[in-house]
Amino acid sequence: MQxxxxxxxxxxxFPDRPPLAAHMPEGAPQWVAGTWLxxxxxxxxxxxxxxxxxxxxERVHSMxxxxxxxLHVFSGGLTVFHAREAAWPNLPRDADGVxxxxxxxxxLVDLKGPEDGRFPTWQGDIMDMPAEWxxxxxxxxxxxxxxxxxxxxxxxxxxxxxxxxxxLRDVAAKGGNLVWLDQCWPMHRKNQWRTWAHIGLxxxxxxxxRLVSMFEAV
Length: 218
Ligand SMILES: C[S@@+](CC[C@H](N)C(=O)[O-])C[C@H]1O[C@@H](n2cnc3c(N)ncnc32)[C@H](O)[C@@H]1O
Hints:
Blueprint: H1 3-13, E1 21-23, E2 31-37, H2 56-62, E3 69-73, H3 80-87, E4 105-110, E5 122-123, E6 137-142, H4 148-154, H5 161-171, E7 172-182, E8 193-202, E9 210-217
Parallel strand pairs: 2-8, 3-4, 3-6, 4-5, 6-7
Antiparallel strand pairs: 1-2, 7-9, 8-9
Bound molecules: S-adenosylmethionine.
């Protein structure tokens, strides 16, 4: 799916929100830009400091209806149940109410585990992800600590964005996508990742602003 089509999928799913804009220059790569204003939600089921704002995952997934193998890195308090529900809300359920995922699934990676309020399906450092995951994921979502001070809240060292983003390329399928939420556009190698979207994420007044950068695996 081309970036402009992904923007249209979002605009269709959230018709009462300001649309994403797609730039489609002839003979050049497409570009998507916009703003997501997500109000504060005090009933977010994920209580972790720095949790994804309520509704963020639904917005992202509306742009990736074709995603099959989804990897969440820095997954924090997200559960695999919520990751699946956000990614595939329209798939049928069986008689027991279990969502029929077929060949789709979500993998969650975090350094910390349930004793610290994190619920990864694979616990460990992103830099140590299993070698057999090479080329496996067609959609990766990343939400790193944004600063040394934030990392202290999680009880983890601050990450090296450049090393992480290069490591994520190893586990991405060619043509797969990375959605990186941060306070900056992370440094990356252009022969690994091509940026195709910048979306400002605003929660409400007096909250820090964030940037959603979307990349395609080259
Ligand atoms: C901003 S929080 C993510 C919050 C998550 N989006 C949520 O909705 O709960 C950052 C997470 O990154 C994890 N983390 C930090 N360094 C890591 C590393 N090197 N490998 C894996 N996870 C790491 C922390 O344990 C923390 O849970």
